[in-house]
# Entry
Amino acid sequence: MANPGDLTARAVAAAVAVAAEHGLRTAEPAVLAARSNVLVHLGLAPVVARVASTTALLRPDVRSWFEREIALAGFLAGRGAAVVPPADELPPGPHERDGLAITFWRRVEPDPDRRPTAGEAGKALRDLHEALRDFPGDLPRLPCALIEVPRLLDSLEGTLAPDDLARLRDVHQRLAETLLDARRPVQALHGDAHVGNLLAAPGRLLWNDFEDTGYGPVEWDLACFCWTPPWGREAALAAYGPEAPSLEELAPWLEARELQGTVWLAAKARFFPESRERAEEFLARWRTPEAGTSETKKSEGRDFLVPAE
# Structure
């Protein structure tokens, strides 16, 4: 079993070592977050290291996810889009040290007194999509849930009950047939566009955490946003613009987000026993006839889903 404290300590040491190799002075690094990834403020410089921790346990190719994130965020920052940019005090990476993938980002001080309204967040997502429409890079096809879920379910053989595995695989197959429609317009997406990845800085809102980026319909990002908060979904969709789907039209995408989060948490619980009770709660919801995207489930998912920060 993994020890979260050990992973965090390794992440800090690895980030400091790589920064030192590139001449970046550090002093008393501070851990800003330690969830799917560890975020470390390196002290003297306005730089934050992002180190794969839990994500590295669940994604054997996590470096490629970080590579795509740096490429996309760098593209957006170069165009003046509202994003947290990669660091320019040293190569942003990804680097590798002690078996850990590391990227470096500019430190942006949050505004602790500001919480974006649903309308502001919906407009911010529309602006992000506009900035992403001509991204020229090579990205996987989304939605991420339909790419990653089968591999994670395979890893849960012998851990989950056979009936649970079969049920989740059936849901995945049904959603894949529904959502992977070649006629649906696709573009580069954030991939994990929930409100926790929208940083409220003084006078502006900045998107960050593009690790799950890929090409897909905008409905995926809208589902990521609308699945998490119990407030303001209609206002956010209205602010996004007339092309936004209704909540009813988003239903299968919300279910895909639910599936992604449930399977991710079940896979995480293999390494972190403290996650097992929560994983079982979410698995149990798929055993009921109304399993899917109930209001209760949508409003409870924020603490465990793929989002790292």
Observations:
- Strands lie at 30-34, 37-41, 47-52, 95-97, 100-106, 187-189, 198-201, 204-207, 214-216.
- Residues 251-269 form the longest helix (19 residues).
